[in-house]
Design goal:
By secondary structure, this protein is mainly alpha-helical. It has a two-stranded antiparallel ribbon. The longest helix is centred in the middle third of the chain and has 30 residues. It is globular and about 60 Å long.
């Protein structure tokens, strides 16, 4: 994993916020002009929202961020203060927002933790653990919801792009399979047989046309062994806390949209469960998006998943959803990044000179 400063700061660059913003605006304009059902009257309907629903959505979103801060503090055995945890989460979210979802901000997260005073081995272990826990949430919950609904959650979902209708079943299965296989391999390597994982990587890269990646495989294997040894010996309480925090974080993320939809539509408890379940499915599809922060994939998929609840309010709700759950982290990242750089670099330099 390459965490050199020059590489990381190419990602943590405030100027990169314009890339997803451009993509987002382009998709919104495309949806507005390609869908004859979307009119200026639809845009004005944004003010039809129930005030309490918007307030609850914002509160749930804040609770999710506090949950993120709590989890990173717990995972690091409280090596980070609440303030430092806030910086880590904001910059981590910023990195995820300006990189394709399929790439994520893993290397950036390791870099941030090391600059917060956590050694490289522990930083690698904590970030790997976080990624595995997040992916396991999808891997476990998606089949549960599909089984409960008899597959109906996904069977009636489609999206229209360039006047062509696409069913999302195949895309979901591809994405879910990739995430499940990757997560299970990483979990096995991290928690059970890290040395066997390294041996497998070296065997694979001994093939002639794969030899160019042999050094990377060697380094990745060593990183996995080191991370595995660091995580061993933690108490049951430790594991229960971070697993509980992971469930809370993702539940809060999804319940934010539940609150938004409830501010425009009258939905019952069964509808809330369906909306929650559809978000799990939609997020799995978004995870393989090649665009920064799933921009475009998210907005276009939204209509296919939730138009049955929202009707004419689908377009404005999708915009509000992204305005609350995605774009604030672009702004916060651009604001907090210079402050964080001054905090960790200039403070370190001053301490060295003293």
């Amino acid at each position: 994993m390459d965490i050199r400063s020059n590489k990381i700061f190419k990602t943590l660059n405030p100027r990169r916020v314009w890339i997803p913003i451009f993509f987002g605006l382009a998709v919104v304009f495309y949806m507005f002009y390609s869908d004859k059902d979307i009119t200026l009257q639809n845009l004005k309907s944004v003010f039809d929202a129930k005030f309490e629903g918007i307030v609850i959505a914002i509160l749930v979103l804040l609770a999710r961020d506090i949950g993120y801060m709590y989890r990173i503090r717990t995972i690091t055995n409280k090596s980070l203060s609440w303030i430092n945890s806030m910086y880590v989460i904001i910059l981590w979210e910023f990195a995820s927002a300006v990189t394709p979802s399929v790439v994520g901000g893993t290397a950036v997260a390791v870099f941030i933790l090391t600059k917060e005073g956590i050694n490289l081995g522990k930083s690698l272990a904590y970030v790997m653990l976080t990624a595995i826990l997040d992916n396991l949430f999808f891997v476990v919950t998606a089949p549960i919801f599909l089984a409960i609904s008899g597959g109906m959650i996904l069977s009636d979902v489609s999206l229209t792009l360039f006047d062509t209708e696409f069913k999302l079943n195949i895309l979901f299965l591809i994405s879910y399979s990739l995430i499940a296989v990757y997560t299970l391999i990483m979990a096995y390597a991290l928690f059970i047989r890290p040395r066997a994982f390294k041996y497998l990587l070296l065997k694979i890269t001994s093939i002639r046309f794969l030899k160019r990646w042999r050094y990377d495989a060697f380094r990745q294997g060593d990183e996995m062994i080191m991370a595995s040894s660091i995580l061993k010996g933690n108490s049951l309480k430790y594991w229960m806390q971070i697993i509980g925090a992971t469930i809370f974080i993702w539940s809060a993320r999804y319940l934010m949209l539940n609150s938004l939809i409830a501010s425009y539509a009258d939905i019952n408890f069964s509808d809330h469960l369906t909306i929650f379940a559809k978000q799990v499915i939609m997020w799995i599809i978004m995870l393989i998006s090649p665009t920064p922060g799933s921009t475009g994939t998210a907005e276009i998929s939204f209509a296919g998943f939730f138009s049955e609840f929202l009707g004419d309010y689908t377009f404005v709700t999708s915009i509000l959803w992204r305005m609350l759950s995605y774009y604030p982290y672009l702004l916060l990242g651009a604001i907090f990044l210079p402050r964080w750089i001054r905090k960790v670099f200039f403070k370190t330099k001053q301490s060295t000179e003293a």
